[in-house]
Each structure stands twice: as structure tokens, then as C-alpha cells.
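testing teh design pipeline on a random one, pls ignore if ur not involved
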């Protein structure tokens, strides 16, 4: 019991001595031991690293999850060590709506078919986004958090100890200056020697930790490379998905234009639908197909054609079509330029050219 009392008294005396020393320094009534320039630079560098790591971490979280409410929810689940509920992202929600509406309008109709294809692509983009977020969380966010919650907290702890040891050292110096009796000076000199040794030891420990910031920068650089690579993969996937979708929808603008012309002829208001400019192989394919239809309409004879999309006949004069089947098509004098005569065995009927691809 006496030992605990003495220890408490000693700790209280140390805290009081530090408080007095700190106050007198602030008031300019006591000298302060300055850290060497190298150690001061290391401390400044560590603070700078902590500041920008926090900022980059926060902005990356905003990029990966723009909804602040969802971010808070995910943070709470993480702290409670529970798995957050799986939810569809915005691309997947849009994709599902497009697919549902496309099935409602009918997969055999041009608009319904287009909606389904767009919805499937949005789902693919949503899946790529999910993979990008997961990869970034593991390879980029986690190392940044580990530094802030691990290494930097250790640095703060050791820096606080260094501050205390520095106050003890300066208090010992002040005590030695005030000592008058020979015996008192001897005790003060012994105390100063001990506090100087403890301060030097703590300064070395702190310096070694702070020099580890260089390794942190090297690690974060590797993480940055991983993050950029994940972004590159994500955007490349999205681009490829959209290129593939544009190829699938290459013939749809003509169909829409045809529908608009029919609406105008029946007295309805016409709607102008912009057509995306095409380039590269897609433009070449579309141009070749168009010239093939023109040639077929200008000369007699028949050609094989592959059906691009399902089509439900709207009258007895038309022929229903199934995607990917091959039929024979020919031009009949006086027939609308948007239609051809199709033959499947003994079945014959009009078919829209926008649903066909001529074969060589």
C-alpha cells in the first residue's frame, strides 16, 4: 500500500513539474530545448502525410460511393463487424428497369428488343463497377486506413512521450539552475543526467519511426498504381460494352425514322430522332448492307438474309421472323422501300429490311 502511495505521489509530482515547465515556457519564463532540425523536418513530413492521406481517403470514398447516407451505413456495419446488405447499384437498377419494360413492350418489337439489350449492357457496367469498387477498397482504401489507424497512431504516441521527456529534461535543467546547496546540486545533476538519457533514447525511437514514412510513401505509391490499373480496367470494360451495344443497335435508328414517317403520314406529329455518327468497322458494315439492299431493289432476283431480331407479323400479308434464322428475300415492284418479300419454305410475306442482314 505504501509503495502505491509513493508511486502515486511520484507520478503526481512529475505531472506537476511538467505542467509548471510548460506554463513557464508559454509565458517566456523558462528556456525550451529545441529538437534538432532533422527530427523537426521528419515530424512536419509525418503531419503532411497524415493530412493528405486523410483527404485522399475521404475523396476516394466519395468517388466510390457518392451517397453520404450509404457511406455512413457502410461505416457503421464495418465498425460493428457486420456484413452490409447487398444492394443493386444505379446501373443495375436502370438495367433492370429497361429489361422489365422491354419484356412488357415485347422482345419481338424493335423498341422492346432495344430496351432489353440496353438493360443487359447496363447490368454488365454495374457488375464492372462493383468489381472496381471492391478492388479499390482492398488495394487502395485499406492500406491508407491502416496507416492512419496504425502507424500514425504509434507515431503520435511516441511523439507525446518525446514531448513529456523534453519537459522533464527542461524541468531538470531549471532545477539545477535553482539549486544552491552542494548536496542539492549533486542530486539535480544526477536527475539531469538521467532525464537527458531518457530524452535522447526517446528522440531516437521517434526518429526511427518517422523515417519509416519513406516506406509508407513507397507502399502508397504501389497502391496508387493498383488504383489506376483498376480504373483503367473498369473504364475499358465500360467502353467495350458500349461499343458492342452500339453494334447491336446499328440498324435501329432507321427503324425509328420509318416509324416517324408513318406517324406523319397518318396525321400524327413527327419526332426527330438523332442518329449517332458511326466510324470504323461498324460504319463499313452498315454501308455495305445499305448498298446491298439498294442493289436488290434495283435489280430482279433474290438473296439470302439473316434475321437480326424477332418480328411478329401485324397482318396476313407479313411474315413473322425469328432472330438468327436465314430466309430468302426479293424485291416486288411497287412495294414500299422499307420492305422486302421474304420466303421461308412455302411461307411468304412482307418483312422489314431493318430486321435483316444480307448474306453474300
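output:
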Amino acid at each position: 500500500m505504501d509503495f502505491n502511495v509513493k508511486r502515486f505521489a511520484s507520478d503526481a509530482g512529475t505531472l506537476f513539474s511538467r505542467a509548471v515547465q510548460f506554463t513557464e515556457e508559454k509565458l517566456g519564463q523558462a528556456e525550451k530545448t529545441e529538437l534538432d532540425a532533422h527530427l523537426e523536418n521528419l515530424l512536419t513530413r509525418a503531419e503532411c502525410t497524415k493530412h493528405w492521406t486523410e483527404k485522399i481517403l475521404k475523396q476516394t470514398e466519395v468517388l466510390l460511393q457518392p451517397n453520404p447516407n450509404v457511406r455512413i451505413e457502410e461505416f457503421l456495419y464495418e465498425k460493428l463487424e457486420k456484413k452490409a446488405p447487398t444492394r443493386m447499384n444505379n446501373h443495375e437498377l436502370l438495367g433492370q428497369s429497361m429489361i422489365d419494360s422491354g419484356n412488357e413492350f415485347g422482345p419481338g418489337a424493335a423498341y422492346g428488343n432495344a430496351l432489353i439489350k440496353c438493360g443487359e449492357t447496363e447490368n454488365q457496367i454495374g457488375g464492372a463497377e462493383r468489381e472496381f469498387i471492391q478492388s479499390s477498397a482492398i488495394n487502395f482504401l485499406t492500406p491508407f486506413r491502416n496507416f492512419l489507424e496504425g502507424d500514425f497512431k504509434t507515431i503520435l504516441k511516441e511523439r507525446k512521450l518525446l514531448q513529456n521527456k523534453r519537459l522533464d529534461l527542461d524541468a531538470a535543467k531549471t532545477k539545477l539552475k535553482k539549486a544552491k546547496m552542494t548536496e542539492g546540486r549533486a542530486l539535480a545533476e544526477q536527475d539531469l543526467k538521467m532525464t537527458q538519457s531518457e530524452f535522447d533514447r526517446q528522440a531516437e525511437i521517434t526518429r526511427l519511426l518517422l523515417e519509416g514514412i519513406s516506406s509508407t510513401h513507397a507502399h502508397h505509391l504501389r497502391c496508387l498504381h493498383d488504383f489506376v490499373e483498376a480504373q483503367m480496367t473498369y473504364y475499358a470494360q465500360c467502353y467495350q460494352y458500349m461499343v458492342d451495344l452500339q453494334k447491336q443497335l446499328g440498324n435501329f435508328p432507321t427503324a425509328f425514322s420509318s416509324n416517324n414517317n408513318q406517324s406523319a403520314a397518318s396525321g400524327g406529329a413527327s419526332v426527330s430522332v438523332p442518329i449517332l455518327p458511326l466510324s470504323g468497322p461498324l460504319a463499313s458494315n452498315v454501308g455495305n448492307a445499305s448498298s446491298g439492299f439498294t442493289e436488290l431493289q434495283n435489280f430482279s432476283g433474290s438473296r439470302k438474309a439473316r434475321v437480326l431480331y424477332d418480328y411478329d407479323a401485324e397482318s396476313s400479308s407479313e411474315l413473322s421472323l425469328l432472330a438468327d434464322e436465314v430466309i430468302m428475300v426479293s424485291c416486288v415492284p411497287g412495294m414500299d422501300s422499307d420492305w422486302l418479300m421474304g420466303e421461308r419454305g412455302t411461307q411468304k410475306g412482307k418483312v422489314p429490311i431493318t430486321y435483316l442482314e444480307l448474306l453474300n
